[in-house]
Amino acid sequence: MLKRDIADQLYSKAIKRFREENPEKELTHQQLDAIWYSIYWVLRHEGEEAARKYVETADLYHCTEK
To answer: CA–CA separation, 22 vs 60, rounded Å?
Structure first.
């Protein structure tokens, strides 16, 4: 499986988790992109297990703020 396919699966889980934890908040397209690229970065540099942990524990809303 390609890394981008794994990133897509993890991204779906991350967005689902975000919506469950923050039903009142909406993410912009730019924030959604930032989450995907954050997951992809972790996946490429630290591996699949680290990316899974990132998706399960990261503060996804604040990781998109710059």
So the answer is: 10
CA distance 18 to 13: 9
Q: What are the distances in angstroms from CA 15 to CA 8, 46, 62?
A: 11, 21, 13
- The model's pTM is 0.87
Average pLDDT value for residue range 37-46: 96
Place of tokens 């993410």: 27
Backbone CA torsion sign across 60, 19, 46, 2: negative
Classify the C-alpha dihedral 27-14-44-63 as positive or negative. Answer: positive
